[in-house]
Amino acid sequence: MEDLRFEHSVRTRAGGARQSAIVGVVASGNLEVLVERVLPDAECTIEIRTAAVGFGEVWTAVIGDFVERYSPGGLRFSINDGGARPDTVSLRLAQAVRLITENGQ
Amino acid sequence: MTTPLKDVTPAERARSTSFYEASARTRLELLLDAGSFVEFIGPEQREVSPHLKIFDLPEQFDDGLVVGHGRLDDAPVFVAAQEGRFMGGAFGEVHGAKLIGLLRAARQIASMPVLILFDTGGVRLQEANAGELAIAEIMRAVMEARSAGVKVVGLIGGRSGCYGGGGLIAGCCSALAVSEPGRIAVSGPEVIETNRGVEEFDSRDRALVWRTMGGKHRRLLGAADVFADDNVQDFREAALELLGLIGPFALDSLKAEQERLADRLSRYGACLDAVDIWTAQGIAHAETVPELPADQFITLANRIGRTSRDAR
Fold this sequence. Notes:
By secondary structure, chain A is an alpha+beta fold. In chain A, 30% of the residues lie in helices and 33% in strands. The longest helix of chain A has 16 residues, at 86-101. Chain A is globular, with a radius of gyration of 13 Å. Chain B has one domain (5-304): 2-enoyl-CoA Hydratase, Chain A, domain 1 (Alpha-Beta Complex), CATH 3.90.226.10. Chain B is built from 12 helices and 7 strands. In chain B, helix 3 (93-109) runs parallel beside helix 4 (128-147).
């Protein structure tokens, strides 16, 4: 297992009012993303526990692209990864943002 | 053009969603009245397995079990759903403790039924002792809840089926609904082949696996009370039907069940294959049962009758 942590400064706060959301499942080639609205509006953190060791550079690129595209201010992402491919990671992150920015509890 | 999602009613969404393919959370969302689910010990509490780290294995924030309460046709129910894709839905320490807690709460309240959405290969081998203990404690908790008047309904239609200790717990429930891909057994196909040889059971013979452990056979044998088509709405309707059917639980129901099982064994004990049993039950062209569409199978099963008597 490898632990990774990314902190980004972001332009805008993520919309919506939900406090947390979860997508995905921890299985081979898949991952779960738990997102919580717990940070100041201009901050975003992403914490990853992954079964695939040695892919820090790929994660850096995928997370950088995601933060740039969605500006998820105020959100803390926690990821349990079962060795998902980068496209699956991007998809789950996008799903998590979409879910927490929906209206609801 | 596709219909916008907001124009689809919850029932239509549940009808078009495969129970087999859906995640534990999606199953609960669509099974219960829309928006009624409230989770206990949600993923944000991070109550993960204390064992998996030792084996350098990834954890899941809910440890593969979603528990909570919600409403089914306006009536309050407790629910538990296993995520069959996380470690095969297997029972570990935290996973088990969440279900035990839910069942004990149900026993105390006594008036709220419990729905358990099984999707499990059995005990998680990495936490074997804790997992085995969890199975024993859950079985006790089910029986204690039932003794207090709680209806405990099992819904089985997930990719991991309901095996090992899960099969034992299912056997303790008040009633079960099963779909064709939902399998119920204790020892799985590979386990039987490993221990008894390929001549006893060929685990690669999928047709054999399905007609021995699959939902159709379990319904015809009376192990499951209702057969559901593989969609969440059908399981919702099955759960409602079963909650209306389940009678009181007492020593009499256990004795009646013992009698039913002894009778079943004397009738079908010598059969070598499920098809022989179906033929002995009076089903013409029994070999075609596996190919029957769900609606035709339900008609057939209802003609054979419901053999279960409250206890399993």
